[in-house]
Amino acid sequence: MLSPDLNIKNIEYNRILNAAPKSVRLMFLLLFIAFVFLYFYLPLEIEDGWWHLSAARWIADHNQVPHEDVFSFSEKPAPWIYTQWLGSLIFYGVGQMGGAVGLKMFRALVFTLAIGLFILRGSQKVAWPVIFVLALILVGVWLRRLTMTV
Questions:
Q1: Helical H runs in 46-147?
Q2: What does the angle CA 147 – CA 104 – CA 133 come to, to the nearest 5 degrees?
Q3: 70, 80 in Cβ contact below 8 A?
Q4: What is residue 79's three-state secondary structure?
Q5: Which of the ends of the chain has fewer CB neighbours closer than 10 A, N or C?
Q6: Contact at 8 Å (CB) between 78 and 69?
Q7: Is the alpha carbon torsion for 86, 98, 37, 55 positive or negative?
Q8: Contact 104, 44 (CB under 8 A)
Q9: For 79, phi and psi rounded to 5 degrees?
Q10: What is the distance between the alpha carbons of residues 49 and 68, in angstroms, rounded to a whole number?
Q11: Which residues, other chains included, contact 40 with Cβ-Cβ below 8 Å and sequence gap of 6+?
Q12: Could you give the C-alpha distances from 23 to 16, 52, 100, in angstroms and in order?
């Protein structure tokens, strides 16, 4: 159990961190969300999305998930379990409706919503400046993951 002094200091610390008016926090949140959306609105060439789109097109054309590597041209097709088929079909559908711009917007929207939910849920437990710093770290980690090349 916390000592009374520690609990009072913790309450005072949270009061100071959350002292900004709600309108300032909302404005900061909206700017941050816009920044995150634009940050993840990246060219599609940095990931293997084109392969996933091709696999989803194959699934849509054949009405089944492939059980062997259908894209291998140098070897006999090997047994294969395609675990990302549902996500690939979703991206394929978005690509059919919106093209490359639609795919970029969809990806940016998904990451923005994830960060927004992280901030919304986290701000109920932790002071908002701390949540924004953690969200920035999360954005950096995800962006690093998206831009990694083999």
A1: 49-62, 85-122, 128-147
A2: 55
A3: no
A4: strand
A5: C
A6: yes
A7: positive
A8: yes
A9: -55, 145
A10: 19
A11: 107, 108, 111, 112, 139, 142, 143, 146
A12: 16, 42, 36
Tokens encoding 130: 């701390």
* Residue 40 identity: F
Residues 81-126 have pLDDT tens digits of: 888 899 899 999 999 999 988 988 998 898 889 888 888 888 788 8
Write the single-letter amino acid at 127: A
pTM for this model (two decimals)? 0.67
Q: What is the mean pLDDT of residues 145-150?
A: 53
Instruction: Report residue 33 as tokens.
Output: 């969300």
The number of residues in the chain equals 150
Total Cβ atoms within 10 A of residue 112: 21
Per-domain boundaries in the chain:
43-147
